[in-house]
Amino acid sequence: MAENSHSTEDFRVLSLSIEFLTTLYGLFMIVWAFSISFIAETSSLTSMIPAFIGLPLVFIGIISTIKPTFRKALMHIAVLIGALAFLGGLDFFRSMFSNYYAGLSKLMLLITGFVYVYFCVQSFIFVRRQKKLKSD
């Protein structure tokens, strides 16, 4: 098989492919970072951390949609980035809401990072099962 084309057997979350979900998650994080920075009226670089995490996810989602042959490697990189978001969000428990907007961003990273990694792992399991079914 030269290219892994999308089929109806692809893993879906709310009828979205995992690649499209990756792109949406990355866009959400970028919008979040700019929104929080604007609302909090801060020019702190740390308020842009979600954007720094989201930007590579947007590129990974787009490239894996355009070039399905790179999808497997790119989605493994994406789940690592999602795990970094989750791990970064764990800092929420250290300082809770000493700074309301920073705490809110950390909580967002914690929750969305966990959910995203969960969906990625489910996608990997789904693909593995599909391959096993096709080989039988």
Question: Percent range for helical residues?
Answer: over 70%
Provide mean pLDDT, rounded: 89
Main sheet: strands, sense, barrel: 2 strands, antiparallel
Which stretches are poorly predicted, pLDDT < 50 over at least 5 residues? Answer: 1-8
- Strand arrangement, major sheet: 1-2
Give the CA-based shape: elongated
Number of helices: 5
Based on helices, strands and strand pairing, what is the structural class? mainly alpha
- Strand count: 2
Helix-strand sequence: EEHHHHH
Query: In what range is the share of β-strand residues?
Result: under 5%
Ends apart, CA distance between termini = 17 Å
What is the radius of gyration? 17 Å
Number of domains: 1
Comma- or semicolon-separated keywords:
elongated; 136 residues; single chain
Structure description:
- It is a single chain.
- The protein has 136 residues and is mainly alpha-helical.
- The chain contains 5 helices and 2 strands, in the order ββααααα.
- It has a two-stranded antiparallel sheet with strand order 1-2.
- α3 (71-89) packs antiparallel against α5.
- The longest helix has 36 residues, at 100-135.
- The model is unreliable at 1-8 (pLDDT under 50).
